[in-house]
Design goal:
10 helices, Phosphorylase Kinase, domain 1, six-stranded antiparallel β-sheet, alpha+beta, Jelly Rolls, flat, 21 strands, 20% strand, Transferase(Phosphotransferase), domain 1
Length: 666
């Protein structure tokens, strides 16, 4: 990229070292942070790029998320026509694309990698951020097995993917995680496009094959999720749904080799090369060439298929010495050929040799013997293998039968013990020799009779009295509904007594602000309806869970912001704060704040939830403790109070945070 190279310094602190990756619309460089003396990664692009502003904004929002499964964004800036953002450096980490160069991962390691990545994306989704461009390039695994996802929000911004509805974005990331799982299992990328750096998955009519059709040992739940999501448009709607469906997974890296593609070994074939048969020679004593030997480069060791002999018996014969009869043909003769006139073989010198038929029969017998020997050897090996398998199966069957017999014996012994402890009524009579007394009645004799007429009338009277009492109480309760409220439906409420307070006259000199008696502390404080974190340049939710602490009346509890790298919020944003809702428009004259740590703070009041339309009440710089800010002149009309921090203090954890204990509005 023009303007960026080794020794270039960006933002006055990041010394660029070497280029790590050429992106589609930018570059990724390693660099050294000279301010904090640490190595980082810088993603830079020309400031004139159409995506520059959107990418920097996405990086600022991603910097507010501190999650162990996401690559952190440390800084955002511009420098002499170059826009850039800074990421943490993961030493010796490899992308999933690099890990899959030698094939898929073990099934449980694929589950762990996908689950960790999905958990990180779900945390980002809770803060309103999505990835939208998930590929194996975006998933990193460190040497200790740590899994992190990079490019949150920034990858989509660089590709100018904008204005995606939250539900659609969550589903897009969920499908991306399923595709990551598919790739980890098969080393194939199932989605369209070539940005994954992997071989594309083969396509079938329904979409892509299930992972179990490409790799062995794929768990059923992962196989079903990939098939439903990639082929049937079903499956998880968010990364969190995917993580909950595949949980639990291993807490550390799963070592091992992925299962290879399945092969059909149910019918192994024993192939005998032609050269290994000692009898397979032609009339010159040389091994005959294969049927396809006419082609150039034919393999002389190719396996030959021996034709089956014709129906009938072969001639019984003794082995033939090939050296003595080099011209004996290599063939089979049926038994019926024995009655044929064989004749004699005449040599070159005119002498008579053995009959041609006899030589043929001898050659056939030799061929049959060699074939039988070879097949016998193969059969013997197969027999040994079958015997070993049968022995193993038999041992397993015997062990299973022994265990079953042992369990049956244990059950029978337990039944016998229970039978021995059981005592019947007849056995008890025999042992005691005395008859048993009849059982005692459950109720006295007089109570076992049906109730009399008078008793029935008494019960009915009690029930009627109870019903009348319930009815009276119900009518009285209904009549009391709304009696303590003033809805304008009844008579006017009794006016309260008027209390007159006499105060000494106050003298106001020119140049002084007029205040009511009691100064800034005078007047009743307004009730606060609610409070939230105010972060307009981030995710607009700066620790909302702690915001109600600023009006609970306790100075020992306080709200604090996210941690930043410097007092000016790391240069990521102009400020953060808290927004209080008074419930309705109020006339605000003064605001008292309690700051546990020194900070630069501005307090303003406005009619709506946007601070841009608010009017400033006052400000303080570098102070802590209880501070009262009073508006000169007329009170400010508004419903929302903004406490805005622009400079922060370093707290005990080494980070810079805004802290606010109490806010009182008068």
């Amino acid at each position: 990229m023009h303007g960026v190279g080794p020794s270039t310094v960006l933002g006055g602190r990041y010394a660029v070292q070497r280029r790590l990756e050429q992106l589609t619309r930018g570059e990724r460089w390693s660099a050294h942070d000279t301010t904090l003396d640490r190595d980082v990664v810088v993603v830079c692009f020309a400031e004139t790029e159409s995506h520059a502003d959107a990418t920097l904004d996405a990086a600022r929002r991603a910097a507010g998320i501190d999650n162990a499964r996401l690559v952190r964004v440390l800084d955002v800036g511009r420098s002499e026509g170059i826009a850039f953002f800074v990421e943490e450096l993961l030493r010796d980490a490899h992308t999933l694309t690099q890990l899959l160069e030698q094939g898929g991962l073990p099934a449980e390691e694929a589950r762990r990698v996908a689950g960790e990545a999905a958990t990180g994306l779900e945390a980002a989704r809770g803060r309103g951020l999505h990835h939208l461009r998930l590929t194996p390039h975006a998933v990193l695994r460190g040497p200790d097995g740590t899994v992190k996802v990079r490019g949150l929000a920034t990858a989509a911004a660089m590709a100018e993917v904008e204005d995606v509805e939250p539900d659609v974005a969550a589903r897009t990331d969920a499908v991306g995680i399923v595709a990551i799982t598919y790739a980890a299992l098969t080393s194939r990328w199932p989605l369209p496009g070539t940005g994954a750096g992997l071989e594309a998955a083969p396509h079938v009519i329904s979409g892509v094959p299930a992972p179990s059709e490409i790799a062995a040992g794929v768990p059923g739940d992962l196989d079903a999720l990939c098939r439903l999501t990639l082929n049937e448009d079903q499956g998880p709607l968010t990364p969190g749904d995917f993580a909950s469906q595949i949980a639990p997974w291993a807490t550390s890296q799963v070592a091992g080799i992925a299962a290879s593609a399945r092969e059909d070994d149910s019918n192994p074939t024993v192939a005998l090369p032609l050269a290994d048969l000692p009898w397979a020679t032609d009339a010159t004593g040389q091994q005959p060439a294969p049927a396809s030997a006419g082609a150039a480069g034919a393999d002389p060791q190719a396996t030959q298929v021996l034709p089956a002999p014709p129906a009938g018996e072969l001639h019984p014969a003794t082995p033939v010495d090939h050296a003595a009869t080099p011209t004996a043909p290599l063939r089979f003769e049926p038994a019926g050929a024995a009655t044929t006139d064989l004749g004699t073989e005449t040599g070159d010198d005119g002498t008579s040799g053995p009959p041609r038929g006899a030589a043929a029969a001898a050659g056939a017998a030799a061929a049959a013997g060699a074939v039988g020997s070879a097949l016998g050897t193969a059969g013997q090996a197969a027999g040994h293998a079958a015997a070993d398998a049968a022995h193993k199966v038999g041992s397993f069957a015997r062990a299973t039968a022994d265990k079953a017999a042992e369990r049956r014996a244990q059950r029978q012994a337990a039944q016998e013990r229970a039978e021995a402890r059981r005592i019947s009524l007849d056995d008890a009579l025999v042992e005691t020799g005395e008859p048993l007394d009849p059982p005692l009645p459950l109720l006295p004799q007089e109570l076992s009779a049906p109730p009399t007429r008078d008793q029935s009338k008494m019960v009915l009277g009690i029930i009627a009295l109870f019903l009348v009492l319930v009815t009276v109480l119900g009518v009285w309760g209904v009549s009391r509904i709304g009696s303590n409220t003033d809805l304008g439906l009844g008579s006017a409420p009794t006016p309260r007594g008027t209390v007159t307070v006499t105060a000494p006259p106050a003298t106001v000199t020119p140049g002084q602000s007029a205040t009511t008696t009691g100064g800034a502390q005078g007047g009743e404080p307004y009730p606060v309806l609610g409070a939230t974190g105010y972060d307009p340049e981030g995710d607009n939710a700066e620790r909302n869970g702690e915001a109600p602490r600023v009006y609970d009346g306790k100075t020992s509890t306080f709200w604090s912001s996210e941690g930043y790298a410097s007092a000016n919020l790391g240069g990521l944003k102009k400020g953060v704060g808290v927004r209080l809702d008074l419930g309705q428009v109020r006339a605000v004259h003064s605001v008292r704040i309690v700051l546990p740590d020194a900070a630069d703070v501005t307090v303003s009041v406005g009619p709506d939830r946007n601070r841009d339309t608010a009017t400033e009440i006052g400000s303080t710089s570098g102070k802590s403790g209880t501070i009262t800010l009073t508006k000169d002149g007329a009170p400010v009309q508004g419903q929302y109070v903004f406490v805005w921090f622009t400079q922060l203090s370093q707290v005990s954890d080494g980070r810079y945070r805004a802290t606010l204990a109490e806010v009182t509005v008068r």
